[in-house]
Design goal:
It contains nine helices and 24 strands. It is an alpha+beta fold and about 450 residues long. A hairpin with a 5-residue loop joins strand 17 and strand 18. GO terms for molecular function: 4 iron, 4 sulfur cluster binding; metal ion binding. Keywords: 4Fe-4S, Iron, Iron-sulfur, Metal-binding.
Length: about 450
């Protein structure tokens, strides 16, 4: 895929940019670094940057894993009628290998454990990547049952697949009604009467925000999916030209657990994924979107129940002048008998210790829900608020929960930059552009 000429006649190709990288002459910047320079008043031109590394981390429901591994000796049973992995149901198939003692399984990222209502596919996948044992319960078509334990290192085929990831733009949500609503867009029942707001999306860091015409992101583009080398396979479900998303896959054996996980919502467990995508800048025209700041990227605030648009805000309203990381000061913990933070944390990142709550930063998603739940104000961060004119009233609505982790997205983009510069990640041309059926 060659670079398209802009109106000045200047263009370059992906192989030419990779040659510059190999020679040590390329300028690679993260999307966060680009934005910092723009805010500092710098004028960035084509010659100032060759590649921008972008990233997004958030709840991405459209996820499934395909697994194939041995559970018994050949001819031990004919067919499996049910398989549970740590209680999470798997779809048996698509290839009937049970006579060989091998299970071929598809496990949905949003599948919920039959043993624990707060455990799902996202939790299972992260624990697998962490190297933990997985209990496999098999019910055969003959009615017998057996259990074995395995781990990812004993599963030769384990691919994570995306059916709808990395939306160019998502939504912010409020509940105008009087009654709380259980929803995947909140870890607790969503309070009504505009008392709170949640949102999704990493704004100016998002891969497709930086390449909305999909000039360099195409079928076969190499990316990092949860830290592992993966590839884009096309447009995802519900993808549209004005708000595309991506499908792709990567090998679970190479993934980083901190980029993954389960997120417990009031409607059940969801799944977290992280994408990092390089954007080679082929011509001057591509800079228009790469140089956009959060305040220039629209974000629709919608009614949670009917997804009815209420007002237009921007990602600047939710990401500018806020704290990306949650801070915990254990000395302020009141050691409450019934800790509301432990009860509410959607990541199980807060537990009880000998002298109060213990915060696990590796599990923390920086969603910020702990801030509104902690009686002692031991957890802190500025999550911001949004001013919105709706229903004839001008309202200030507090952000109480974020379903995208921008702090870890920044780290993912930095990791991709370092891999590109050290030759551990090579840019490649897509084999085909992504298109949509009308």
């Amino acid at each position: 895929m060659n670079g398209e000429l802009d109106n000045t006649g200047t263009s370059r190709t992906i192989p030419e940019i990779q040659d510059k990288i190999d020679a040590g002459d390329a300028i690679v910047l993260t999307a966060a670094e680009i934005s910092e320079r723009i805010r500092a008043g710098e004028d960035i031109k084509l010659e100032d940057v060759d590649v921008v590394t972008t990233a997004t981390r958030g709840i991405m429901s459209g996820t499934y894993a395909v697994l194939s591994f041995k559970v018994s000796e050949p001819d031990s049973f004919v067919k499996a009628s049910e398989v549970l992995l740590n209680g999470v149901p798997a779809v048996v198939g698509p290839c009937p290998n049970e006579r060989l003692g091998i299970l071929d399984l598809i496990v949905l990222g949003t599948a919920h454990s039959k043993l624990d209502s707060n455990y799902g596919g996202g939790h299972l996948f992260r624990e697998m990547v962490e190297g933990k044992n997985v209990k496999v319960d098999v019910t055969t078509s003959e009615g017998s049952h057996f259990s074995v334990e395995t781990r990812l290192s004993e599963i030769p085929y384990a691919k994570l697949n995306a059916t709808r990831h990395a939306f160019k733009n998502y939504r912010a949500f409020v509940n105008p009604g009087k009654e709380p609503i259980k929803t995947i867009f909140h870890a607790l029942p969503f309070e009504g009467e505009f008392r709170e707001m949640t949102f999704c999306g990493c704004g100016e860091l998002n891969p497709i925000e930086n390449d909305p015409k999909l000039e360099t992101i195409g079928i076969g583009t190499r990316v990092l999916l949860n830290g592992a080398d993966g590839f884009v396979t096309g447009a995802g479900t519900r993808s549209a030209p004005d708000n595309p998303n991506l499908t792709g896959f990567a090998d679970m054996h190479d993934m980083t657990p901190e980029y993954m996980g389960g997120f417990v919502t009031s409607a059940g467990p969801e799944i977290i994924n992280t994408w990092a995508v390089p954007i080679p800048i082929l011509h001057e025209g591509m800079l228009e979107n790469i140089l956009k700041l959060d305040k220039e990227i629209p974000l629709k605030l919608v009614d949670l129940a009917g997804r009815i648009p209420l007002c237009e805000i921007t990602y600047g309203d939710v990401w500018d002048n806020v704290d990306l990381n949650i801070k915990y000061k254990p000395e302020k913990c009141l050691n409450c008998k019934d800790c509301l933070v432990i009860e509410a944390c959607p990541m199980n990142a807060v537990s009880r210790g000998g002298n109060g709550a213990v915060h696990n930063p590796e599990l923390c998603f920086n969603c910020g829900l702990c801030i509104s739940r902690c009686r002692g104000e031991a957890f802190s961060a500025n999550l911001g608020s949004v001013r919105c004119a709706t229903g004839g009233c001008l309202r200030d609505i507090k952000v109480t929960l974020r379903q995208s982790d921008r702090a870890r997205a920044v780290i993912a983009a930095e990791e991709l930059k370092e891999k590109i510069l050290t030759g551990r990640f090579r840019l490649n041309e897509p084999v085909e552009k992504i298109s949509w059926r009308e």
